[in-house]
């Protein structure tokens, strides 16, 4: 193939500069700075820093608190991702079968998408208010003395619930469009081949939704890890001490509340590596097993 | 294998549209029936009601001796071949063919044997482990056929199965499907808008228009004795010539007075005269003037299109018959003339 070249050397560079500078300033520079400061111990008041080598990392890895946050993050991510996807899929399958008022039904299900994470968190705080929150009362009616912000598990449940609630609409939209892109005749062929609707779903519908599902899996893991910051922040605001938090929130707490920039940078670097590994793993291993039509 | 019986089957959609008016017919065991008609005539709706993919608004449908109105498609003992094949894209050819059997608690060895038999019959053996995306249109069509065959159903349903294939492949598959159906002896209902497919494949043709059955008959009957002007003009390429005529003085007269045949007793007024292009002869001694505007050369024969008076008219001429251009004369074969009521279009 013939490619059109530039006659001068500086023009292509000039044209690339805006894009490259944005990437450099907002991505590479902070990343490099984080990597660099992860090897230093910073004076809390900014008067100086001492090179400590890998000490920030080793103290993190031996810290039981960091391990606890890591464990919680893994559980939180797994639960939020699973429930967001499962609920959205269930709703999408049901909405797909609705014949009357389908549009209204779908619009109502998508509404929550427009709610910003901190607002969602704030709604969660109100719903679980200790004295008059309707969900607290619901929990109480089944004998669960719900204490948001006091009991670790209760707070974690509320965080997961609100995060799932916030993410379901996005997944719902994608699953619904995925379902509607499955050819009608393929479903009808399945109707003749298999009398069980459950069997038809697992054998035909679900595999054909796999590309959508895989895409959403990545989106949801990323969401649970990073975009739930607003929800967590509103829910634990003020007393992060004994409350559940994710790795991303801990980066913020240690760096900006605890003024431990070195330790916080080390955590960011670990997260960066984690995300990189996860992405590579997903694309290399999972994608190969998925049928794209 | 089974006989199929439709008793005043009717379809009204929720918006009030009556897609199929009450329709009754009977298909004996092993017969190949073709439902033919223009788009929107209700033929596909009728087929889908038989398959169970559409609800039957009114009427009774029986396959074999069983009324199947409320029965799930999977329990009707039918197999269907769809227009766009409807193969499962994520399954191999083998699994596509076997899927319907796997859900019917048939043991693995039997399934494998049936898949092999069907694959051999359809020349698919070497493609069994491929996915549908790796096959050509004709091969996909065969897989869809295979999926139907292995089921040994009471009834085959075909929904325009050849319309996505190119002309050459279509002719070939037409013969293959017909031969296969003969061999298996399974009662079949085949929907198409292509009158050539209907003529060549059917034991009996059901011509539909506007949700109504216009005529049921063998291809020969439908072609030579059309029940209405619709059937006359839908079946055959080019269609039957329809001329405005009058009953006058005991004769049927066209073109403002030329008598062509004696009128049936006690008839007066207007009538529509139908005659197939091959039942017309170029005849210098004939008493009907004709002006040939265009000759279509088709090798074995020619089609002469032109004006008879102020009406369009076509003539079929064999390759060694004369094919004049411009003004000429012709004669009709009176025995092959069909007369239709000019108001209702029904055969007189």
From TrEMBL, chain A:
Residue intervals passing through the bilayer: 12-31, 72-93, 105-128, 156-179, 200-226, 266-286
Domain ABC transmembrane type-1: 70-282
Keyword match Cytoplasm: no
Entries under SUPFAM superfamilies matching the protein: MetI-like (SSF161098)
Tree of life domain: Bacteria
Record's bilayer topology term: Multi-pass membrane protein
Assembly, per entry: The complex is composed of two ATP-binding proteins (UgpC), two transmembrane proteins (UgpA and UgpE) and a solute-binding protein (UgpB).
Protein name (Swiss-Prot/TrEMBL): sn-glycerol-3-phosphate transport system permease protein UgpA
Source organism (scientific name): Thalassococcus halodurans
Automatic annotation (TrEMBL), chain B:
Protein family according to the UniProt entry: Belongs to the ABC transporter superfamily.
GO-annotated molecular function: ABC-type transporter activity; ATP binding; ATP hydrolysis activity
InterPro entries assigned: AAA+_ATPase, ABC_transporter-like_ATP-bd, ABC_transporter-like_CS, ABC_transpr_MalK-like, ABC_transpr_MalK/UgpC-like, Mo/tungstate-bd_C_term_dom, NA-bd_OB-fold, OB_MalK-like
UniProt keyword annotations, A-Z: ATP-binding, Cell inner membrane, Cell membrane, Membrane, Nucleotide-binding, Sugar transport, Translocase, Transport
Domain ABC transporter residue range list: 4-235
Protein name (record): Carbohydrate ABC transporter ATP-binding protein, CUT1 family
Top-level taxonomic group: Bacteria
Statement: the UniProt record of this protein carries the keyword Nucleus: no
GO BP annotations, alphabetical order: carbohydrate transport; glycerol-3-phosphate transmembrane transport; glycerophosphodiester transmembrane transport
PANTHER family: MALTODEXTRIN IMPORT ATP-BINDING PROTEIN MSMX (PTHR43875), SN-GLYCEROL-3-PHOSPHATE IMPORT ATP-BINDING PROTEIN UGPC (PTHR43875:SF12)
Spans through the membrane: none
């Amino acid at each position: 193939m013939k490619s059109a070249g530039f006659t001068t050397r500086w023009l292509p560079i000039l044209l690339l500069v805006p894009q490259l500078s944005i990437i450099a300033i907002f991505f590479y520079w902070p990343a490099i700075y984080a990597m660099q400061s992860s090897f230093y111990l910073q004076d809390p008041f900014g008067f100086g820093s001492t090179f400590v080598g890998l000490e920030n990392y080793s103290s993190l890895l031996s810290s039981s608190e960091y391990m606890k946050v890591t464990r919680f993050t893994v559980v939180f991510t797994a639960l939020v991702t699973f429930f967001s996807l499962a609920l959205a899929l269930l709703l999408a399958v049901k909405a797909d079968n609705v014949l009357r008022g389908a549009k209204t039904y779908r619009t109502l299900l998508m509404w929550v998408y427009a709610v910003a994470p901190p607002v969602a968190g704030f709604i969660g705080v109100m719903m679980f208010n200790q004295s008059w929150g309707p969900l607290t009362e619901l929990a109480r009616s089944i004998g669960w003395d719900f204490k948001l912000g006091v009991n670790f598990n209760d707070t974690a449940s509320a965080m997961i619930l609100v995060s799932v609630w916030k993410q379901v609409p996005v997944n719902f939209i994608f699953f619904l469009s995925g379902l509607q892109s499955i050819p009608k005749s393929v479903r009808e062929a399945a109707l003749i081949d298999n009398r069980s609707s459950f069997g038809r779903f697992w054998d035909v519908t679900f595999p054909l939704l796999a590309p959508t599902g895989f895409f959403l899996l990545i989106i949801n893991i990323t969401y649970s890890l990073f975009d739930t910051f607003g929800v967590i922040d509103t829910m634990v605001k003020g007393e992060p001490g004994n409350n559940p938090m994710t790795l991303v929130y801990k980066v913020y707490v240690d760096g900006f509340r605890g003024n431990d920039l070195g330790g916080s940078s080390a955590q960011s670097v670990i997260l960066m590596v984690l995300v990189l590994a996860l992405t590579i793993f997903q694309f290399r291993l999972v994608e190969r097993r998925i049928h794209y039509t | 294998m089974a006989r199929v019986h439709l008793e005043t089957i009717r379809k009204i959609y929720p918006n009030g549209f009556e897609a199929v008016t009450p329709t009754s017919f009977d298909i004996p065991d092993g017969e190949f029936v073709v439902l033919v008609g223009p788009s929107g005539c209700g033929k596909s709706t009728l087929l889908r009601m038989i398959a169970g993919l559409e609800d039957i608004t009114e009427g009774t449908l029986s396959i074999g001796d069983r009324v199947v109105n409320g029965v799930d498609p999977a329990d009707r003992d039918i197999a269907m071949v769809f227009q766009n094949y409807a193969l499962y894209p994520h399954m191999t050819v083998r699994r596509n063919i076997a899927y319907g059997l796997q859900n019917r608690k048939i043991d693995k060895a039997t399934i494998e044997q049936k898949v092999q038999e069907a694959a051999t019959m359809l020349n698919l053996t070497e493609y069994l482990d491929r996915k549908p995306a790796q096959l050509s249109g004709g091969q996909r069509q065969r897989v869809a056929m295979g999926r139907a065959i292995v089921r040994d159903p009471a009834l085959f349903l075909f929904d325009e199965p050849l319309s996505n294939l190119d002309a050459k492949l279509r002719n070939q598959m037409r013969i293959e499907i017909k031969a296969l159906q003969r061999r298996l002896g399974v009662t079949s209902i085949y929907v198409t808008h292509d009158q050539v497919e209907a003529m060549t494949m059917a034991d009996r043709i059901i011509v539909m228009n506007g949700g109504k059955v216009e005529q049921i008959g063998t291809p020969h009957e439908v072609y030579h004795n059309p029940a209405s002007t619709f059937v006359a003009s839908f079946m055959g390429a080019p269609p039957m010539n329809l001329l405005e005529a009058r009953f006058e003085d005991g004769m049927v007269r066209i073109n403002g007075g030329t008598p062509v045949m004696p009128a049936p007793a006690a008839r007066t007024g207007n009538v529509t005269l139908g005659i197939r292009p091959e039942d017309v002869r170029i005849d210098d001694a004939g008493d009907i003037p004709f002006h040939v505007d265009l000759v279509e050369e088709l090798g074995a024969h020619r089609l002469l299109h032109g004006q008879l008076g102020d009406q369009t008219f076509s003539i079929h001429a064999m390759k060694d018959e004369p094919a004049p251009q411009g003004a000429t004369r012709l004669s009709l074969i009176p025995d092959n003339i069909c007369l239709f009521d000019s108001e209702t279009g029904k055969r007189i």
